[in-house]
Write a structure and sequence with these properties.
Blueprint: H1 12-31, H2 40-56, H3 62-87, H4 92-127, H5 130-151, H6 157-166, H7 181-193, H8 195-204, H9 218-226, H10 230-240
Helix pairs in contact: 1-3, 1-5, 2-3, 3-4, 5-10, 7-8, 7-9, 8-9, 8-10
């Protein structure tokens, strides 16, 4: 029996990076030069080669992939200008302009590649350190969660009103202690700087019994436990994983 991969299309945390890369592919295809004499098969081959060139640059995130796509597109335009110069070799002025444009596009391409290499070197240096690697991964996940939450459309007022009328009255219970906005922001900042500690605090509903780090103030501990921000919810997903 074959196991089908889980359907994660409804997970906004996964849908957002998927959309980023899909949009990047469409943008790359739009940036490539079009050859009026080329067939659809030639165009498809050009697109596949461009994707292979982007993949060969080993982009590890959306920013690096965008730089790689611009480098590949600029290189393609430089090559296209050289082809135009060769086709118009008997027209001196036209060939000279094409070669000049090819040189300009190649300089742009080299600039994109140099910037990409610097960005990758900086990322690899941070990844070599366990603390910064974990913090960067945590921050990236938190940012994706915040952006995915912002993409969710607000509920329609009519639907909210109908749901309020149909839903049974909840059983009375003690009102939870409200977390002030300042403490909520401080709890998010604490989780970004100390992801492991935040996971332990939320997992135990307070300070863990074998706490091996300096405990934060009790008010901050409560804010971490009771918080519902995307940053703190990410801690629950990491702990479950």
């Amino acid at each position: 029996m074959q196991h089908q991969p889980p359907d994660n299309t409804a997970d906004p945390d996964l849908q957002l990076p998927r959309d980023i890369y899909h949009q990047l592919v469409h943008s790359l295809f739009a940036m490539l030069p079009a050859d009026p004499s080329g067939t659809q098969e030639d165009r498809s081959r050009q697109a596949r080669v461009a994707l292979a060139q982007v993949a060969a640059l080993l982009p590890a995130n959306a920013d690096e992939a965008d730089l790689a796509a611009h480098y590949v597109a600029a290189s393609a335009h430089a090559a296209d200008c050289l082809r135009q110069a060769a086709r118009n070799a008997t027209h001196f002025d036209c060939a000279t302009k094409c070669r000049a444009q090819a040189s300009a596009m190649m300089r742009q391409a080299r600039g994109y590649r140099s910037l990409l290499l610097r960005v990758q070197a900086a990322r690899q240096k941070r990844e070599a350190n366990d603390t910064t690697r974990e913090r960067d991964a945590w921050t990236g996940q938190a940012v994706l969660g915040l952006m995915a939450e912002a993409l969710q459309p607000p509920p329609a007022p009519a639907a909210v009103a109908v749901a309020a009328e149909v839903a049974p009255a909840p059983a009375p219970r003690a009102a939870p202690k409200v977390v002030p906005a300042e403490l909520a922001a401080e709890a998010d900042a604490y989780a970004l700087h100390y992801p492991r500690r935040a996971r332990l605090i939320r997992r135990h509903g307070g300070l863990p019994p074998d706490c091996d780090f300096g405990p934060p103030d009790p008010e901050l501990v409560h804010a971490i436990v009771a918080g519902t921000s995307p940053v703190l919810r990410a801690a629950d997903r990491d702990a479950a994983a």
